[in-house]
Design a protein that fits this description.
This protein is an alpha/beta fold. Helices cover 42% and strands 18% of the residues. 44% of the residues are buried.
């Protein structure tokens, strides 16, 4: 039955597994299908119109294949670009990922926050609209980090990364202004929580790094109220069809996802 399908979690690569982790903790018995569009990674390199068309058409094929009860777009870049088009085209609930600017603005003690994002998310009007709407009374440093999503992918695949380059990517987040310092850094990419320990290591002072995944899981739980959802072990599919490295297989096992 359509209303007893799985929940489809979609991302450009492995970063959306941070959202799978949060969903599994909050809603432990639902069946998840994770789809990584690794053939098209990274989304930040695409032109907006081409990426929108690509995701909308790919999502149609995935919905036909898996018949999900709901879809989580576990990617800030995709969410800020394609959610309206997906909701107009397909008659199932979509849960998106947006930068956690509102909670950061509410929780800051110093009045200085940073938004660490991909280049695509940073340049979107959607992101600036969130800042205007929820963070007009605080100082916001918007930081585009072109390397970090790929660093997270590499680390999850068991490969080494350049920590000096990582430190350079996050350095602009740390602002000192009239004796006050950044105290909140919004992780505006689902890949970034997999680098959080390295962010802590290379931060010049302690800040709160805000992971969006728990809020996404709570939103999904709300959307699923009153709907039948399939249970049991989940699966993971990769659009490239490339072999899945052993470290990634281990992560998938941790989240009860079997390679498709």
């Amino acid at each position: 039955m359509h209303d007893a399908g799985p929940v489809l979690v979609f991302d450009s690569g492995l970063g959306g597994l941070s959202v799978v982790r949060a969903i599994s903790q909050q809603i432990p018995r639902i069946r998840l299908v994770y789809v990584a569009d690794d053939a098209a990674f990274p989304y930040g390199d695409w032109e907006d119109d081409q990426l929108r068309t690509h995701i909308v058409e790919l999502m149609g094929r995935l919905i036909a294949q898996y018949r999900p009860t709901a879809v989580v777009i576990a990617c800030n870049t995709a969410s800020t670009l394609v959610l309206p088009a997906l909701r107009a085209r397909y008659d199932i609930p979509f849960v998106g990922t947006v930068p956690a600017i509102k909670p950061a603005a509410e929780q800051t003690k110093t009045g200085i926050i940073a938004v660490l994002a991909t280049q695509g998310t940073m340049r979107r009007d959607y992101t600036r609209d969130l800042i205007r709407k929820f963070a007009s009374l605080v100082h916001v440093r918007l930081v585009g980090a072109p390397l970090l999503a790929a660093f997270a992918e590499a680390r999850m695949r068991g490969e080494g990364i350049d920590e000096r380059a990582l430190a350079e990517q996050i350095e602009p987040c740390f602002v000192e202004l009239e004796g006050r310092r950044t105290d909140m850094v919004v992780l505006a990419c689902t890949h970034y929580p997999f680098l959080a320990d390295l962010f802590d290591r290379h931060a010049p002072w302690a800040v709160c790094f805000i992971d969006p995944a728990p809020a996404i899981a709570r939103r999904l739980a709300s959307v699923l109220e009153g709907r039948r959802v399939g249970g049991g072990p989940g699966s993971a599919a990769f659009t490239s069809g490339r072999p899945v490295p052993a470290p990634v297989l281990e992560i998938l096992r941790q989240y009860r996802l079997a390679p498709a």
